[in-house]
Task: inverse folding
């Protein structure tokens, strides 16, 4: 059986071709961002669990207490931060812009 | 990157791969069955499967995950390659001094075949050969190549060993494309009276293989940097020649030359046993395998499955040819696995 032509030619001009699987490659790339973040989330969770275990071992925290439902005061204390988090996450869905732009150019 | 973060990231990427293997693949297969039933006939070719499935959202995500989970495993923030690069000096220091070591023979002037340097196989940047930590990267990565096998992966090589010595214990055995010695190890460990030779192109892998053998004090094995289809062995040197996952990494002409080389170095009546990916039971399996070849940067997987291996062996005078599915672990259904798996196949024949 014959070899494909490129076998003896060495690396192609574009040695790192992107492979895309969706009709709009923007989805390929955006999903890659999501998956990278998902990995980071797990790395953080893993770190928090290790931290909790270490703190529990040295008697600084009580792991069971950490898992208890927070009381209303604590929830209220976190509320403004939580809302800021939500706004930061979702603001761009509105399409609202923050800076004054030049008028759109005629194309 | 700290060790804990690296391990956490690699573990979660592996779990995603397992999900892909055991959840996304069956879901895709079920969708395929539904679509085939809806049109009233089951596809006979992979092109027909592509028509049914190729542009579905499920398949796009399946394909995306296959490519990118492997990319995330090797590169990117928590990839095997940057992790090992950061630790290059320390890792090199874990290797024993190998000067005067009979278990290792490297050739400083060695030149790789062009095909070998063209593509980063398995999406391993730089391949298993181009830099000093490449062997460590490959070794670490291979602990999870076949997501479903996990720790049982050793089982696969043990099974091949059993298969290769079915007809008797060889005096001399050659393992071609031995990598870091994972496929060679059960031979030299379990067959203490067999002299085992193992060759590969990749010096960083051979170093690891030899260090491993030295650690177990095996006296019956040598790892040598050599091209499988151009060895320096005398004709009729070996009773058995093996390879594991080598053929699909070579272009078809080089596979032919490898069979020639096996015929040359085998003793009359000697047997060669290759474990690779070949028999595809149906059009769906073909569709999946062709896609894998593309997405995982394994361009020679496809020419191998398109090759008429039986005819290639007959032309070379091999006899007692057997080409059959290989069960890589207990309980695997080789005809119709519910989970994704490689099409493991034994290709064996005798030199008359
Ligand atoms: C997928 S690995 C398998 C390694 C090992 N047999 C195992 O099962 O772990 C394929 C190996 O084949 C080697 N290889 C590719 N082309 C080769 C050639 N022409 N001669 C010798 N080795 C080759 C690669 O360097 C790589 O180590």
Result:
């Amino acid at each position: 059986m014959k070899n494909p032509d490129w076998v003896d030619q060495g690396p192609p001009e574009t040695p790192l071709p992107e492979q895309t699987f969706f009709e709009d490659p923007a989805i390929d790339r955006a999903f890659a961002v999501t998956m990278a973040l998902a990995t980071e989330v797990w790395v953080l969770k893993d770190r928090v669990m290790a931290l909790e275990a270490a703190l529990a071992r040295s008697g600084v925290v009580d792991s069971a207490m950490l898992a208890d439902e927070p009381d209303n005061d604590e929830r209220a204390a976190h509320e403004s931060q939580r809302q800021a988090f939500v706004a930061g996450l979702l603001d761009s869905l509105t399409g609202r812009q923050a800076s004054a732009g030049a008028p759109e150019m005629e194309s | 990157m700290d060790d804990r973060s690296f391990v956490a990231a690699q573990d979660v990427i592996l779990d995603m791969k397992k999900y892909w293997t055991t959840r996304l693949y069956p879901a895709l297969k079920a969708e395929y069955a539904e679509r085939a039933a809806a049109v009233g006939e089951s596809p006979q070719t992979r092109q027909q499967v592509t028509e049914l499935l190729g542009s579905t959202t499920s398949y796009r995500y399946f394909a995306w995950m296959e490519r990118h989970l492997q990319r995330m495993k090797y590169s990117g923030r928590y990839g095997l390659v940057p992790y090992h690069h950061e630790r290059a000096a320390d890792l090199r220091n874990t290797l024993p001094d190998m000067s005067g070591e009979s278990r290792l023979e490297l050739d400083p002037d060695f030149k790789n075949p062009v095909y070998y340097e063209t593509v980063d196989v398995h999406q391993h940047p730089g391949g298993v050969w181009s830099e000093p930590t490449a062997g460590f990267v490959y070794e670490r990565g291979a602990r999870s190549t076949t997501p479903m096998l996990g720790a049982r992966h050793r089982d696969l090589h043990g099974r091949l060993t059993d298969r290769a010595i079915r007809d008797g214990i060889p005096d001399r055995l050659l393992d071609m494309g031995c990598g870091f010695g994972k496929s060679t190890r059960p031979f030299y460990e379990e067959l203490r009276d067999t002299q085992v030779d193992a060759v590969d192109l990749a010096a960083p892998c051979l170093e690891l293989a030899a260090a491993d053998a030295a650690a177990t004090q095996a006296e019956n094995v040598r790892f040598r940097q050599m091209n499988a289809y151009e060895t320096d062995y005398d004709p009729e040197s070996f009773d058995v020649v093996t390879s594991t996952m080598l053929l699909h990494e070579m272009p078809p002409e080089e596979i032919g030359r490898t069979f020639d080389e096996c015929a040359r170095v085998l003793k009359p009546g000697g047997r060669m046993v290759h474990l690779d990916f070949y028999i595809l039971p149906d059009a769906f399996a073909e569709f999946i395998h062709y896609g894998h070849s593309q997405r995982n940067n394994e361009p020679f997987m496809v020419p191998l499955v398109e090759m008429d291996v039986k005819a290639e062996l007959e032309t070379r005078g091999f006899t007692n040819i057997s080409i059959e599915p290989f069960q890589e672990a207990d309980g695997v259904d080789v005809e119709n696995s519910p989970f994704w798996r490689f099409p493991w196949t034994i290709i064996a024949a005798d030199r008359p």
